[in-house]
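Q: What residues go here?
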């Protein structure tokens, strides 16, 4: 049986989704009963036998293709969907189906791409990025984001009827898949923290917040967190000389300089520290050594940072928009306010500042939420169970 795992996104940058792909590839390889191919570039994660030319694989001989991102669809369209006889499995690591559901206008715009019959659709997305990536204008970024989502919906629609197995990582995706993806077998499987993320018995020398992720504005909105720290200090002057936030992440050449300039302009050099990218045990230790993790993302399908932080025994400060539904009970979101973290109103900087100060200043509450967060992840998310379930799904699909 021949299986191709695709992760075209790994040609561009490495994140949690690519780590999932690398782990899955290693796990399947250890089983030894599937002929495996991996398309992408996961050498940064220690996987060196990746295929870098999709045409080196005989597509017509494959039994199953796993796609992980919308960029994989671009690659398959380039090969020719008519050549593909294999079953298609989509592990939906993004929020695409949610965007498609919520915006009829994006669905309408996506139809225009059908009419234009774009020969090289990825070049369109790259042009959008090059036009707007250096701009600080919020409106221009919003337009770019809107058009990019419309473009992604176009690609998603083009392959929806070809998907045989759809794997959702949060309950909202699963409910929407029942509506939009008719022929596929639909399976709900939340992601789990990688094994390296664990609670360490260390003496903390820092009880402030930590941000972990890409330093970019369109999705992660790091500038909101920086401005939120300024508001915290304005409300609580006794914190003006205290380190409140450590920013860990890859230095984006476009947004990175903007964030450092913003920190300087808001006179926050004593309060915010840029650590740079950390990996493996260095990252695990940095999370363990923090009081709590903070996020201001515009969207997340299922924030791996949250469960990784909770696996390290620290609570979460996030917003109402970034708190995903994890089962069909409308009460069951990933973060329960006051239990394993605190929730502030999306884009409300005063509410952010108040919740940030509460998390920082009330050590008893923070410690209680930290204990709850650790127990929650241990009880609900297990990487070994996750991989074994996915292996069974793959075997039954071959």
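A:
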């Amino acid at each position: 049986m021949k299986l191709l795992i695709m992760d075209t996104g790994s040609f561009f940058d490495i994140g949690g989704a690519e780590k999932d792909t690398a782990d899955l590839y290693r796990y399947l390889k250890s089983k030894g009963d599937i002929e495996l191919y991996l398309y992408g570039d996961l050498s940064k994660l220690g996987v060196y036998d990746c295929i870098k030319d999709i045409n080196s694989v005989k597509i017509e001989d494959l039994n199953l293709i796993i796609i992980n991102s919308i960029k994989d669809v671009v690659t398959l369209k380039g090969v020719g969907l008519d050549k593909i006889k294999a079953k298609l499995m989509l592990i939906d690591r993004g929020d695409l189906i949610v965007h498609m559901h919520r915006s009829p206008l994006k669905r309408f715009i996506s139809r225009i791409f059908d009419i234009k019959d774009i020969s090289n659709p990825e070049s369109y997305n790259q042009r959008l990025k090059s036009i707007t990536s250096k701009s600080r204008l919020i409106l221009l970024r919003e337009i770019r984001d809107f058009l990019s989502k419309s473009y992604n919906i176009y690609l998603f629609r083009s392959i929806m009827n070809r998907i045989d197995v759809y794997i959702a990582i949060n309950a909202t995706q699963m409910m929407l898949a029942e509506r939009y993806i008719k022929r596929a077998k639909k399976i709900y499987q939340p992601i789990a923290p990688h094994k390296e993320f664990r609670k360490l018995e260390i003496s903390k020398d820092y009880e402030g917040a930590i941000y972990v992720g890409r330093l970019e504005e369109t999705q992660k909105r790091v500038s909101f967190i920086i401005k939120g720290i300024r508001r915290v200090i304005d409300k609580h002057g006794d914190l003006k000389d205290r380190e409140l936030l450590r920013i860990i992440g890859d230095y984006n050449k476009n947004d990175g300089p903007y964030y450092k300039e913003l920190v300087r302009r808001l006179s926050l050099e004593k309060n915010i520290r840029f650590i740079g990218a950390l990996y493996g045990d260095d990252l695990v230790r940095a999370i363990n050594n923090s009081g709590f993790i903070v996020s201001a993302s515009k969207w997340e399908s299922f924030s791996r940072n949250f469960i990784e932080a909770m696996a390290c025994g620290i609570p979460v400060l996030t917003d109402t928009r970034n708190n995903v539904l994890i089962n069909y009970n409308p009460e069951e979101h990933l973060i329960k306010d006051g239990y394993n973290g605190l929730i502030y109103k999306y884009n409300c900087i005063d509410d952010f500042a108040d919740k940030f100060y509460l998390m920082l200043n009330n050590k008893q509450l923070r410690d209680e939420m930290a204990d709850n967060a650790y127990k929650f992840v241990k009880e609900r998310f297990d990487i070994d169970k996750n991989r074994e379930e996915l292996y069974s799904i793959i075997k039954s699909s071959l």
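A: Context that may help when evaluating the design: The domain at 2-192+383-397 is CATH 3.40.50.2000 (Rossmann fold). Residues 38 and 248 are 29 Å apart (CA to CA).
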